[in-house]
Amino acid sequence: MTFFSEIGNYSVFLAKVFNKPERKRILFKEFKEELIKLGINSIPIVIIISLFIGAVITIQTAYNMKARLVPLYLIGYLVRESMILEFSSTIVSLILAGKIGSNIASEIGSMRISEQIDALEIMGVNSASYLALPKIIAAMVFNPILYVFSVFIGVIGGIMAGSLGGLISVTSFIEGLQFHVHLYYIAYSMIKTVFFGFIITSIAAFYGYNVSGGALNVGKASTKAVVNSSVAILIMNLILTQLILN
């Protein structure tokens, strides 16, 4: 399948997803379940990633500032800006693309090869909307929450690494956190996470929905979903940064 035919098939799939969705009661029920599966169940990995990213940024920044005549509180400032602008939005989303994307593609792909999707179609259900739309909405709603959570945990990791390693006092670090705050940057990154949530779930659902053959092809679809959603996230990150920050 060529690149352009995949883009075309993906567009057709999205049109089917948003055309004639299920009744609100059913959609809301599935949405709540997906919030738990895609959002709440992702919190542990977000905690681990963010904690260590914040700690590593603090240690690296302190090391590079050792011989320079700059105030130490800038360590806290740089940790905050790094987490807000890029790490908690883009890097965490790339990790979630692997966790969530492979899971969605495998789940829907298994339903395809076991003919459960065909059964839904026979019953008159819009299978693409029923399977993908709750996941897309849940990711777009919960991804900004995970982003805020990641920034908070990353800052805590930075404070712990700085104070326990004797690199910077908690007071100086907090002073840096309060220095020259740009709320616009937070809004920019939260907008990015909404787009990233859409990309991760829709691409994974697309590859899972179009699986053909046996179980081996489910694994291939999961791999393609993770790789292509990761590439799409990086491209979208560039586009949104150019549009919003310039």
Structure, described:
This protein has one domain (23-245). 83% of the residues lie in helices and 0% in strands. The chain has helices at residues 3-17, 24-39, 43-64, 74-113, 116-122, 127-164, 170-177, 183-209, 215-245. Helix 1 (3-17) crosses helix 6 (127-164), helix 3 (43-64) packs antiparallel against helix 4 and helix 4 (74-113) crosses helix 7. The relative contact order is 0.18. The mean pLDDT is 89.
Q: How would you summarize this macromolecular structure in one to three sentences?
A:
83% of the residues lie in helices and 0% in strands.
Please report the total strand number as a whole number: 0
> From N to C, what is the helix and strand string?
HHHHHHHHH
Number of H/I helices: 9
Distance between the termini: 36 Å
Mean pLDDT: 89
Low-pLDDT windows of residues: none
**Major beta sheet summary:** none
Rg (C-alpha, Å) = 21 Å
* Count of domain modules: 1
Strand residues, percent: under 5%
What would you call the structural class? mainly alpha
Shape: elongated
Percent of residues in helical segments? Answer: over 70%
